[in-house]
Amino acid sequence: MKHRPYFKIVEDVLALSIAEGRLPAGTQLMASALAKRLNVSRPPVTRALKELEDRGLIEPIDGHGYMVCGEGATTPLRRNLHELDVGFDLNQTRDEALVAPSWERILESVETDILNCTPFGTFMISETELGRHFDVGRSVAREVLSRLHGRRMIRKDRQSHWIAGPLSARMLNEGQEMRRQLEPLAVAGAIGQIPRVDLLAMRETARAALNDGVALSPEQMEAIEYALHGACVNASPNRLLNDMVKTVQFSGIVNRLFAAHIGVHDAAAVLAEHRLVYDHMLIGDRGGTEAALRFHLDADHERSISRLKVLSIFDAPELAPYLTRIY
Amino acid sequence: MSSGAGSPGTVLRVMGRSEILPEPVQQRACAELPFAIDFELSDSIDGLQRVVSRPDSFDVYHQWHTGDLMWTARGIQAIELDRIVGGREIAVAARTKIGDRGGNGAIFDKLFVQPNGTLGPAATNRIAMLPSLHGVDSFAFHADIYKYIDPDEPQSWSWLFDRRWAARTAILSDPVLGMIEASLATEAHERITFANVGNLTIDEIDLVADLLVRLKRLGRLRRTWRNYQEAAMLMQRGVLVQSMFYPGYVLLQRKGLPVIMSDPIEGMRGWHLDLCISSAATGHVLDAAYAYLNWWHAGWPAACLSRQGYYATFPDQVRQHLTNEEWGYWYGGEPAACHLPDPTGRPAVPIGHRRAGGSHRERMSRVRVWNTFMDEHNYLMRRWREFVTP
Q1: Which positions in chain A touch B52 (Cβ < 8 Å)?
Q2: Considering Cα of A252, then A255, then A258, then A263, what sign does the dihedral take?
């Protein structure tokens, strides 16, 4: 995905809010107040407002910012922008993306691109091409790669090239050793945090899929995996723990790629293991939740090791433009 | 045999390596089975890629150390032992494990479909593949080597890296098998022992690969080969010590080259060849697949391939298809009582010759490591390419 300039994100969010009526016609928009409301700096807001004016969505008020165009917009209405839903709160990730520094916005995309290819071999990363691809400067590109380097996802060779891969069984083993300690804590911590009805729905999805015995699509499987390893982890109140869990969940890529290129297999085992975790969560059994999740993670690790071997006989299907295969 | 297998219009698509499906085997199968067979020979990774990603592109596959990959990908379906004539013997053989010393990649350890869908050693009525052939490989050497060494020097894998005939050695180019042989040679050459030669760690792979690259840069171990014909050709052109497939050795014997198959003190590299049915095969095609498997299990093809040094995993079935002289030489480890033919019927083994390592059981007990994809195959591939790339 090509990353948009900062002002463009602000512009799109405001345009959407206007289109959906969350910023009613006549609302007065001042750059400083909007920047505060959106929790961003002022220059991108100023630029975004200029663009919106060019698109005819807002019109300038003499010396007092802009006014949202539309029926009945004759005099500017001064509103407390904090009372208005400007669209960010609805979408957590977009909100985070908007307030995060540039390197943070693209870190996840770069990580995914790299993980998507390393099960297939070894690749060189071009800093320049990465910058061009995401429309960011060289220093931002370097910042992103340094972060991934710190997490041992990539390394520098003797000629100082950035190298990614190959994803090894050792990496999976090391990740698993950490993950089986951390993730059960996070998921057990989510007990009482996730609404019971949501948990019941998650268990029902796993149970129904198991009983139907119908082959699942990669997308369905992905959603099932996200419910436990994403939503439940996120629900834990310990944010530090959650962040750490995410950095050791990279083995999930093997399952995702395997599902996409080879097919969804062994789903029955995964579903039964998930259901068992939910059973424990629903009765508030912390120890049982931890044990059931650890069992699932161990079993899944075995599957990942076997699946990595299958992936390693193929070439990477598609590569981000800043990656070049070297072996 | 199911009646459906003979239905007109049924075509069975069989895929395998050239060593397993020589002309005599193909012709006999077509003549004896009541349906058309489309044989496809594939000696490269393409065949395996197809089996795991497109099971609809084949019906039967003669697999070679790739069983776990194919089962993980469910490119193959479970074989019902009840549909194999004499299938019960397989469970018995799995208990006695003759010619199947444990270790990563041994056939009976990952043969039976367990209740949880994985493969394991506990006998059930369903197997992932039908064992057909097995054997041990080592290296071969030219008799000229005795100009450099005493005749009683123990044969060792370290000979592959030996500086006494430095530039006149070669190794096979396949990464899976090549890495195993290179590891055995590294152990002997460097006087170290790997915990599990069949499943090396990254550090161990680095150690072997670094040595290989160094030897190559020193001008030693320069040549690699892809199949047994190339292997035989290299020895005819002056290579003194190199890894060797048995069919290549039989070919050289037929040509009268003074080449000796080694029985290294460190043990040998074991392999097994098994029959698999595509997960996409159904109906008449599935019936035909079972008929083809039963034809193999009845022994004639394995007897034919015994003449290039392979062993039937279940030898009792091949005995009736071999002469007493052949049985005595290939399975009993006895001196050849007469000039013995290769699979095509041409005379190959000279009178009085004796197989290195002895009888079937003795040789199979010499397995040090089985052909297998290691857990670190991804990493292994990277380092191996560094070695084989010119």
Answers
A1: 262, 310, 313
A2: negative
